[in-house]
Amino acid sequence: MSLAGKIAMITGGSRGIGQAVCLRLAEMGAEVVVNYVSRPDAAEETLSAIKGNGGIAHLAKFNVADAEEVQEVFKKITADHGTVDILVNNAGITKDGLLATMKEEAWDDVLDINLKGAFNCTKAACRAMMKKRWGRIINISSVVGASGNAGQANYAAAKAGLIGFTKSAARELASRGITVNSVAPGYIDTDMTSDLSEAVKEKILSEIPLGVLGEGKDIAGAVAFLSSEDGRYVTGQVIHVNGGMYMI
Ligand code: NDP
To answer: Is 246 assigned a catalytic role?
Structure first.
């Protein structure tokens, strides 16, 4: 499953799931652009890890929610390295709270980064993919986009929105040789889930038939498949990678 000659942009590629995706796609031969927004230290670590394995990578600092900034950065990347062939819309945040007391800002921030961020980056990348008649777009959704979750109305709405976005974009772009899919992780051991109390973790574990939390590499494996020639006939789909905690 070689990705030699392809340029892959991974939003939120500096930590957690995004970092695992960056490492995996770089191992497969892709030239990787690692996006981050607030933690240059983590981004540098990811860059060094890729280079240490003999891979090619660059850093790109931008906020996926800022449409203008996204357009500018994609233009610069195209000028400096070439057009993006594989886009992984992975950047995400949570701002949990019960619906009745959720602040408007918590709603807007989560929708802006998790959902509008994917729109901004897809819009910035897809024209060049259309011209090349080849592209892979992979949106990182979540199990809660399918199941819902108390305390995450904003996040679940954004992640469910990503699934509708994926299917619509897949229909629009299929005739140009571009596939668009979602990967919906269950609970993955990253900074995003590190704040959960032991009691909550125990409860989550009791609901996972495979009995363990997932790791970034589990999601990276699904992204690798969808990015590769092996995944060429898969589009508009949601691949659930969740240890069996939610079965469609
Ligand atoms: P982390 O919190 O570990 O990492 C988040 C990444 O997103 C960081 O690289 C961060 O960059 C980046 N990021 C955040 N906001 C922005 C922004 N505005 N613009 C650009 N980059 C941004 O998250 P995970 O690795 O756990 O999650 C990755 C994705 O997977 C998210 O979309 C998440 O919703 C989804 N997911 C995660 C699950 C889990 O259990 N962990 C389960 C289901 C889905 P920086 O460090 O510079 O701030």
So the answer is: no
Task: Give 240's pLDDT tier (boundaries 50, 70, 90).
Answer: very high
Give distance in angstroms: CA of 19 to centre of ligand 1.
Answer: 10
Report how far residue 71's alpha carbon sits from residue 78's, in angstroms, rounded to the nearest whole number. 11
**Distance (Å, whole) CA 82 – CA 67:** 20
Residue among 178, 245, 183, 243 nearest 215 (CA) = 243
pLDDT in tens, 7-29: 999 999 999 999 999 999 999 99
d(C-alpha 96, C-alpha 102), whole Å: 8
Determine if the pTM surpasses 0.85.
Answer: yes
Q: Is the C-beta atom of 113 inside 6 A of ligand 1? A: yes
CA of 205 to the centre of ligand 1 (A): 21
